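step 3/5: co-fold with flavin-adenine dinucleotide
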Amino acid sequence: MSNWVQGKVVENNHWTDLLYSLRIEADIDPFVAGQYGRLGLEIDDQIVGRPYSFVNPPHENIYEFYSITVSEGPLSPKLSSLREGDKVWIDKRVNGFFTLNEVPDGKDMWMLATGTGLGPFLSILNSDEVWKRFENIVLVHAVRFAQELTYQDTMQKISEKYKSRFQIIPFVSREETDFASDGRIPAAIKTEKLEDKAGLAFNPETSQVMMCGNPDMLIETRNALKEKGLMKNLRRSPGHITSESYW
Ligand SMILES: Cc1cc2nc3c(=O)[nH]c(=O)nc-3n(C[C@H](O)[C@H](O)[C@H](O)COP(=O)(O)OP(=O)(O)OC[C@H]3O[C@@H](n4cnc5c(N)ncnc54)[C@H](O)[C@@H]3O)c2cc1C
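step 4/5: write tokens
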């Protein structure tokens, strides 16, 4: 059951025609980096709500959500047209297990994101814990077009702070660029292109992988990593791969 409270939009930043980030003021429960909240709007006299990962770190109290407009979807096009000052419903309670307390220790943390699946990683990267627990962090962001490589300033700031401990590897699948890898993450794991790029190996002794976004990417990546000895991370059987599927 949702416990809707009213929030106020303080900004709706449109990155592209389809991608936008909402910043919302609201009185909701504290969250842990990697968790999600629920946003809702009244449509035909009913609140239609969907989960959205927090992008901001927990110590900031303006809540940020990074979303894509799914043209045939009931909620995302309407959220996209919200403006500063508009009201939006937000669930007071937060949820989710895509958090570091669910992840075993390791040396190298791989964060694999497709599209808006980048969001929870920014929250985690802007919190201290991941930097205390892991030596190296590789953030892989896979998109279709280069203009979808958003949040460059945020990543730049993290890079400046953590220097060689942090690497960003962009993938662009539907156009050629001179800076991003082409193709998709699972294929680059199979061919070892991703490990070569990062200068790190997937290794069950040292690697933890968190991945978020498109469910097909999650399944194919899990299969590719299994070949390298990395297993799904479950509470009853700790492993190496922790995932969050967006649909
Ligand atoms: C735990 C969790 C956290 C989520 N966090 C986010 C988030 O931070 N940002 C975000 O954009 N979405 C996120 N989603 C998806 C989000 O809840 C909505 O499904 C999405 O915004 C579309 O809403 P809709 O009502 O318009 O269409 P829906 O009826 O919800 O979805 C219609 C279809 O749109 C496609 N779709 C849904 N989400 C995406 C997406 N992110 N990228 C591409 N295609 C998609 C799928 O094919 C889906 O079947 C999350 C989902 C879950 C389960």
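step 5/5: annotate
Residues 102 and 235 are 7 Å apart (CA to CA).
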